[in-house]
Design brief:
- By secondary structure, the protein is mainly alpha-helical.
- It has one domain.
- The protein contains 4 helices and 3 strands, in the order E-H-E-H-E-H-H.
- It has a 3-stranded mixed beta sheet with strand order 2-1-3, sandwiched between helices.
Length: 126
């Protein structure tokens, strides 16, 4: 059993990991997904990947996948700081993701998957 779970709104991540990992798939916006992650952090989960990883600005991509600890402990101040700042940064950007052609969505899914894959590789060696 893994020591983490994946929270995502990316259907590609769900399809690739659903049989092998704990995946929480939610059909939410990028910002709404970050708020779900924030709520989990306040329950005692810890961030394992940065909520703003990658070079794509928030709201330019509709997809985000975040690793958090499976186990709850006391609230981690660094995780709180990171997720709260990520939400504030996200709120500064206008949502551009609804204006793309279908193939662009597939590209953004792949970008998010690739970023998550590197996080999974690190998480699996703990």
């Amino acid at each position: 059993m893994s020591k983490y779970m994946v929270i995502t709104n990316n259907p590609l991540v769900r399809s690739r990991l659903d049989d092998t990992h704990e995946v929480i798939y939610l059909e939410l916006s990028y910002e709404e997904l970050l708020k779900v992650v924030r709520d989990r952090i306040y329950e005692g989960h810890r961030l394992l990947t940065h909520p703003l990883s990658g070079s794509v600005k928030p709201k330019e991509t509709p997809y985000k996948s975040v690793l958090i600890s499976e186990r709850k402990e006391k609230v981690d101040g660094e995780s709180v700081r990171l997720i709260e700042n990520a939400i504030l940064v996200c709120q500064k950007f206008q949502d551009k993701s609804k204006y793309y052609k279908e193939e662009v969505y597939k590209d953004f899914q792949l970008v998010d998957w690739t970023l998550l894959e590197s996080g999974l590789a690190s998480a699996d060696v703990w």
